[in-house]
Amino acid sequence: MNDQRALRLHVPEPAGRPGHRTDFSYLHLSPAGEVRKPPVDTAPRATADLAYALVRVLDDDGRAVGAWAPDVDAAFLKKGLRGMIRTRVFDARMLVAQRQKKLSFYMQSLGEEAIGTAHAMALQDGDMCFPTYRQQSLLLARDDAPIVPMMCQLLSNERDPIKGRQMPVMYSFKRLGFFSISGNLATQFIQAVGWAMASAIKGDTRIASGWIGDGATAEADFHTALTFAHVYRAPVILNVVNNQWAISSFQYVAGGEQTTFAARGTGCGIASLRVDGNDFLAVYSVSRWAAERARSNLGPTLIEWITYRAGAHSTSDDPTKYRPAEDWKRFPLGDPIERLKRHMIARGVWSEADHGALQQEVEGEVVAAQKEAERSGSLADGHVFPPREMFEDVFEQMPSHLVRQRRELGI
């Protein structure tokens, strides 16, 4: 008698549907300060335990504890707090503007502000970021944040630096080390590795920082990037933002329930860590460690940032269809802005009054920028680019068939 069992395809069960309480026990949280900090020249295989642990600096009382706690002053902390608040205020204003039909589309980074803000503060001028559509904090954390140009692109007005040739949230600022965002998933990972390889070939000191979401780790480009980064020891930081959701699919659809995304890096011979992405100090400290490693020709680092996408995937998404509305409030890592504020108050360098004043100041800054941007128009004004724009800045010498088409349009 044949006692072999028929094979069955494993299909992950849906999570986060209305009425379902998402179980966060899979996060396997490590207490703050518990995870070791290895030397920057540590071998990739020696980071295997860090791919399953969770680097955390801020404890429940707001204290910075453990080997990863960075030595930073009050001015640095205030700058980081300002960057996070500016990102949140910017997001809120643009979300309202989209509902007012002033722009067509928007994507928030609500709940993820610490990752881009602290990471940007750990890099140097000349380094190049290859972001996804949820890393606006990399730009907004800067002292010279291009707030008005970003808004003009969102509004699709005459001052749009991309001239309407890109989706509203897909910015491009070469001088600020912000590579053009791609709508195709995972392409930025191989682009970052290639850019880093070119920097090393030229004998430069600049490094690259590539970004990807948990869902996009299922793309082939993710694995190709890891292979090339490992083989050529590219000076690159490979960031996986695990915000638990790939649009309406929970992170385990990409394999997150059986292992960590960071573990995929160690399997490819890359130093890898798993980090509390809502802990500003942990993000900054690990980003500095990875940047030093890359700049010292010690190879790439893969970092899995654990966070939570508090808002909708985009303004075209309704998250109430697939997850409980209160999930973010129950997420055990908390609000990154509140956690940094609590730390600063615990250190005696901040107060609730200071926080209120900063919030008001940043809101005024963003409102003023929006007013300036809207002077050049918005979608609500019926603004459209003239047809001639589609023919310009494409070819050095316009092909004859385009010349003919433009003539037929009478332009």
Number of domains: 2
List the strand order in the largest sheet. 1-2-3-7-6
Report the portion of residues in β strands. 5-15%
* Mean residue pLDDT: 92
Poorly predicted ranges: 17-21
Main beta sheet, described? 5 strands, parallel
Q: What sort of overall outline do the alpha carbons produce when their principal axes are compared?
A: globular
- At the first level of CATH, the class of the largest domain is Alpha Beta
Helix content: 25-40%
| Name of the CATH architecture of the largest domain | 3-Layer(aba) Sandwich
- The gyration radius over C-alpha positions equals 22 Å
CATH topology of the largest domain: Rossmann fold
CATH superfamily of the largest domain: Thiamin diphosphate (ThDP)-binding fold, Pyr/PP domains
* Total count of strands: 7
What is the count of helical runs?
Answer: 12
Please identify the structural class as seen in this structure: alpha/beta
Our measurement of the CA-to-CA distance between the termini, rounded to an integer number of angstroms, reads 81 Å
The helix-strand sequence is: HHEHHHEHEEEHEHEHHHH
Topology:
Elements: H1 74-99, H2 113-122, E1 128-130, H3 137-140, H4 147-155, H5 187-201, E2 208-213, H6 220-231, E3 236-242, E4 245-246, E5 249-250, H7 263-267, E6 271-276, H8 280-295, E7 301-306, H9 327-330, H10 336-347, H11 352-374, H12 400-408
Parallel strand pairs: 1-2, 2-3, 3-7, 6-7
Antiparallel strand pairs: 4-5
